[in-house]
Amino acid sequence: MDVTAMVPGLTITAEGVGNSKGQLDAGKITFSPDVFAVEVAEEQQIEANKAAASNAQTTANQGVAAAGQAQTSAHAAQSSANQAQGTANQAGQLAAAAGVGAVADADAVALVNQRVSDLGDYNTVVEAALFFDTGQSSLSADDKATLDKLASTAMSTQNYMIEITGYASSTGTKAENQKLSDERAAAVADYLRNSANVPMRRILEPAGYGATHAAAPNSDPLGREINRRVDVKVLLNKGLNEAL
Question: In the predicted model, what is the mean pLDDT of the chain?
Fold first, then answer.
C-alpha cells in the first residue's frame, strides 16, 4: 500500500493474525477510496495553510522590522535636522556678534585715529630753557632745581607729556653739534626720570637738533650761549585730555 494512504483521520480495516509481540500480521487491508481522497486533500490543505500562515508571519515580521528601521531613520533625520538648525542658529548668533564687534572695532579705530590726528593740537602748560657751557652736557644745580619745579607742575596735571629738545651753537662741526644736542637732551630726560620720578611713559623721546633752529645769531658770544640749550615743555594734548 502506498504510504500516502496513511494519513491522520483515514479509516482502515485490517484482517490478519496477531503474533507474540502484539503486532498484527495483516492479510487484508481495506479503506474507502473516497474517504482517502478527502483525507489527503484535507491534509494537503492543512499543510498549505500552515505554509501560508508561516509565510504571512514572516512577511509581517519583515514589515515590522522595516517599520522599525523607518522610524529609526525618521528619528535620525529629525535629530540631524535639529542639529543643523542649532548650528545655523549658532552661526547666526556668531555672525551677529561679529557684526557688533566689527562696528565696535571700527568705532574704536576711528576714535584712535581722531586722537592721533589731534596730537598736534595741544597746550603748553609750563616750559623751561636750560643753558650749557661750550662742549658740555652736564646739568647745573640751578638746572636741576628748574627741572624739579617743572616735574612737580607736570605731575599735578592729568594727561601731560614732556617734550625735550636739545640744541647746540655752530661752534663745532656738524657731527659734534649733533652729538652735544643729543647728550644735552638725554641728560634732561635722565634727570626727570631718575631724580624727579617722572614716569617714563610721560616723557617723549628726547630729540637733538644740532645747530639747527637757532634761537639767536651764532655770530656773537651771547647768541651762541643762547643756542647751547635744551627746551623742556609740559604739554597737555587736547585729544588725550578727553575722557576715555
Answer: 77
Contact status, residue 137 vs residue 180, Cβ threshold 8 Å? yes
- Work out whether the CA dihedral 28, 33, 34, 38 comes out positive or negative: positive
Contact 177, 183 (CB under 8 A): no
- Please give the average per-residue pLDDT across 182-189, as a whole number: 98
Claim: this prediction has a pTM higher than 0.70: no
Residue with cell 557684526: 99
Please report, for residues 7, 69, 125, 159, the alpha-carbon distance to residue 244 in angstroms, rounded to integers and kept in the order given.
Answer: 108, 64, 21, 11
Q: How many CB atoms lie within 10 A of CB 35?
A: 13
Query: What's the pLDDT at 121?
Result: 73
Domain definitions of the chain by residue range: 3-55, 122-241
Query: What's the chain's length in residues?
Result: 244
> Is CATH 3.30.1330.60 correct for 122-241?
yes
